Amino acid sequence: MIYGQRIRFRGIERDDLPTFVKWINDPEVKAGIGIYRPYSQAEEDDWFEEMLKHPPDEHVLAIEIRTQGESEGILAEDVTDPGSESWKLIGSCGFFKIDTRNRGAEFGINIGEKRYWHQGYGTEAVRLLVSYGFETLNLHRIFLRVFETNQRAIRAYEKAGFIHEGRQRQAEFRDGRYIDVLVMSILSDES
Ligand SMILES: CC(C)(COP(=O)(O)OP(=O)(O)OC[C@H]1O[C@@H](n2cnc3c(N)ncnc32)[C@H](O)[C@@H]1OP(=O)(O)O)[C@@H](O)C(=O)NCCC(=O)NCCS
């Protein structure tokens, strides 16, 4: 486990996959990610098997939030006994295409549980992943690509210290129009 203040990362399990499929098919979530068409459980199962063949540092991590006791911002239905350690899956994140020579990597994040948007969890998860990337994986540069229309994500990345680096003009076709894809990055001495 990788522990943050209110969240933790753990490895993903096959049991998580139906939840991921549900999230990916949510139009509001889909608008921010690379998948643009209906997505099936079979595709997700194939993706999972392929992911397991990648280097372990590129395996996707589950994002969970602490739900016991009086944790701030937790919905009443998710609150558990203060005495019991309890966590709720709200999303996933991870590095891919780790470049071992240049010590660089791209990362992605999806908080699919929309009820937990806009409570700082996205920013906290990005910060935690970045510090894991620099302090444990010994990365030097972490970058991401984000649609210009995804202002929520852009704001979260800015708050986590990412710098606007470039703009891939009209690189994505969505909803009948081309949109720009922004490139943002953070270096190890900037976190
Ligand atoms: C993008 C994502 C990770 C952000 O997570 P989150 O927990 O909602 O983010 P945070 O609460 O930490 O921060 C969001 C910030 O965006 C701001 N924001 C929200 N909607 C906004 C909008 N339409 N325009 C501008 N800012 C907006 C919030 O006010 C907040 O900033 P603040 O703290 O200064 O007020 C999450 O929404 C998500 O996973 N979405 C679906 C998948 C996705 O788009 N992934 C990213 C692909 S690049």
Question: Mind explaining what this structure looks like?
Answer:
The protein is α+β, with helices and mostly antiparallel strands and 191 residues long. Helix content is 26%, strand content 34%. It has an eight-stranded mixed β-sheet with strand order 1-2-3-4-5-6-8-7, covered by helices on one side. A hairpin with a 4-residue loop joins strand 4 and strand 5. Helix 1 packs across helix 3 (41-53). It is globular, with a radius of gyration of 17 Å. The protein starts with a strand and ends with a strand. 25% of the residues are buried. The mean pLDDT is 94. The structure holds coenzyme A. Coenzyme A binds next to strand 5, helix 4 and helix 5.
Key features?
single chain, 191 residues, alpha+beta, eight-stranded mixed sheet, 8 strands, 26% helix, globular, binds coenzyme A
**Bulk shape:** globular
Spell out which ligands are present.
Answer: coenzyme A
Oligomeric state as shown: single chain
Kindly provide the radius of gyration, computed on alpha-carbon positions and rounded to a whole number of angstroms.
17 Å
How do the helices and strands follow one another from N- to C-terminus? EEHHHEEEHEHEE
User: Which structural class do the helices and strands define?
Assistant: alpha+beta
The count of strands amounts to 8
Mean pLDDT score: 94
Helix content: 25-40%
- How many strands, which pairing sense, and closed or not: the largest β-sheet? 8 strands, mixed
Q: Which blocks of ≥5 consecutive residues have pLDDT under 50?
A: none
Strand percentage lies at: 25-35%
End-to-end Cα distance: 21 Å
In the sheet with the most strands, the strands line up as 1-2-3-4-5-6-8-7
- Number of helices, counting only DSSP H or I runs of 4 residues or more: 5
